[in-house]
Amino acid sequence: MIELTGVTKSYNNTIKAVDNVSLTIPKGEIFGFLGPNGAGKTTTIKMITGIIRPNAGQIKINGKDIATDTLEAKRQFGYVPDSPDMFLRLKGLEYVSFMADIYEVPREVRSARILQLAQRFDMTNALGDTIQSYSHGMRQKIMIMGVLVHHPEVWILDEPLTGLDPRSSYTLKEMMREHADSGRTVFFSTHVLEVAEKLCDRVAIINRGQILFCGTFAEMQQHFQSNVSLESLFLELTKHE
């Protein structure tokens, strides 16, 4: 579960990147976080993950406060950032093993997990190569593998499908559904509205730091008394902002 209560982030004490946002994402749900470029999506995600601190408000991950119980809160989730260009000099296997070390994954189980993830993402033959030599899509896949190796309860994914080939994209969406259906939480941002419409149990639309809507796609259609696509409703919501 992810809980945000009155979260605000300002820059230079004037620009509110995130403005009094409150959200609750329960277990067993895929939650889509949507918004135009610069709307506050990544800032919100960086606050949830503890990378930056809010000016006001509280954030809890499975009941652990990210500000006051930071280590325990961070043990609850796996985070895929919006750029996979990290640890480029490590080999793929070295990176995933490093992540397993950080999260204290027992050595007797990590090999099987790494192998399973590599097989699902078609990365088995690339584990011995440096991340620097990978394509963008392969870097994205190795970052996802590193995040999932410790079986986190909560997945926090910032534009995770960017750069993935169709097969890997399908695999990740399948894994997201499996994770939520097992009673865990998936929170992800995306600009691909068709994916959000088909995959998410609920969505929130943020623009200029404020939540414009939060609920199911059906609730959004009912609110607007329309049966058009999520893309059309999204454009309608954000056009005057």
Q: Please give the count of helices.
A: 9
User: If you consult CATH, what is the topology of the largest domain?
Assistant: Rossmann fold
CATH homologous superfamily (4th level) name of the largest domain:
P-loop containing nucleotide triphosphate hydrolases
- Estimate the mean pLDDT confidence: 89
- CATH-level-2 architecture of the largest domain: 3-Layer(aba) Sandwich
> Please, how many domains?
2
* Beta-strand residue fraction: 25-35%
The N- to C-terminal Cα distance equals: 30 Å
Number of strands: 10
Order of helices and strands: EEEHEEHEHHHEHEHEEHH
- For the record, what CATH class of the largest domain applies? Alpha Beta
- Categorize the overall geometry: globular
Could you characterize the architecture of this molecule?
Keywords: ATP-binding, Nucleotide-binding, Transport. Residues 2-233 form the ABC transporter domain. This is 3-dehydroquinate dehydratase. GO terms for molecular function: ATP binding; ATP hydrolysis activity. The chain has 241 residues and is of the alpha/beta class. The chain folds into two domains: 1-76 and 153-160 and 180-241, P-loop containing nucleotide triphosphate hydrolases (Rossmann fold, 3-Layer(aba) Sandwich); 84-152, no CATH class. It is built from nine helices and ten strands. α6 (166-181) links the parallel β7 (154-158) and β8 (185-189). α3 packs parallel to α5. It starts with a strand and ends with a helix.
